[in-house]
Design brief:
Helix content is 29%, strand content 22%. It is of the alpha+beta class. The protein starts with 17 loop residues before the first helix and ends with a strand. Keywords: Signal, Transport.
Amino acid sequence: MKGTKRAARFALPIALSLGVAMTALTPAIAKDLLTVDLVNEPSSLDPHQQWNPDSYYVYRNIFDNMVTRDDAGEIVPQIATAWQRTSDTETVFTIRDDVTFHDGTPLTPEDVVYTVERITDPDFGSPQLGQFNKIIKAEVTGENQVTLTTDGAYPALLAQLVKLSIVPRHIASTMTSAEFNEAPVGSGPYIFDSWDRGVSVTVTKNEDYWGDIGPFETVVFRGVPDAATRVADLQAGAADLVVTLNTDLAQQVENGGQGKVLTVNTERVAYFAMNSALAPLDQPDLRKAISHAIDREAIVDGLLGGYPQIVDQMLSPAHFGWADGIEGYDYDPEKAQELIAGLETAPDMELGLATSPVFDQRVVQAIQQMLTDVGLNVAIDTTDMATWLKDQQTTPEQAPMLTFSRWSCACQDPDGIMYPLLHSSSNWSRVSDPEIDALLDEARSELDETRRADLYAQINRMALEDADILPLYQAAIIYGAAENLDWQPTSNESLFLNRMSWTE
């Protein structure tokens, strides 16, 4: 990395209101109630409409998925107990016969087929469509047996099915997605109880769960946007688990004598998107200048305590396909200024930088300052997470000019991050490159793992060449937890309640 670390200038003071602790809710009762402070309330509890962290944390416990990952990251059975690829395009799954939905109705292979057809229906409008649209047919092909057919070979099928939540056909087919969101019914270890809008979502233990029964009778998920407030809740005993802390607040937990810090490097990649469909960002040299202007080392080491790892590709080391030796843009503000000075169209206009409170605003503000330092006019545009998601899932012509974001598909496969962010057909993508599109299509159909990994390395190098998108770092997620909460976070950021327990 070129340049001098400038982390100190971006450090922000921690402001903690004493009144927060004084007004905190009654501490949770061990063994009965677990209280979790999220950043925001879920944007949707329909598992086919969102997979942002705050939604996923909640609904992943209400629903079972086709398959799942164990704590070591290996794909293991859930609703499907076994599977066999019978050809390049067909995989046969054996479906459990001992699962009931929360209303007492048995889960059947027909529910699995309906689930696949629902999420792959373009008219349904799932933001996850790009993750599953290689599946072109789902059919019951025997007792407790479902066959999925893909449009060509699809090596990422199992990795994607890790996040396919099975919904009951007899309920979901009679409702709109908005109605199902209000009263979601799944087969998971916890049952939806209530949603106090703007405050909390409550779930209760499923005593009839086929798998490991959850240890908590009741779990309350609260939206608490201010991270300092989440820490205050933890230290006051009003919360047992709090998510998305920064390093300063983690240190405060460690020094406070109340609670502990849990952390893991995730599959989530932080990135900076530059909308090349809009002037002046349609100039590759401006995107390259922005890439040189952002001091990732200062962000990672100075602001984030060295927890994350800088990456130069749209993958993390937790993904299949991670390639050593790919080098991105060094921090070089002088080079950035030279590129800006040589532009055909001067970037005199204000560039909007879209963000939401769920993201670390210290990082957003640091990036704004770095771009200002090389002569750009950048204004931060902060919206709530639901609005931010809506603004991102649109055409490039309507999307924000600049975006700081972090992406996880909960699948640990490059198809789950690179296809939605780089393929021109995706409503998340700000990239339009026919050659990259073709290589992404080829990679998601390549069964030879070595060849497939080489394709993704080639795509990442091409994306860097034109500065289509700037990878920043592999995100580390930091949780604060009650001392007697036993839980090991995982790279895919799944908050499985039935893998937690209280210790004496």
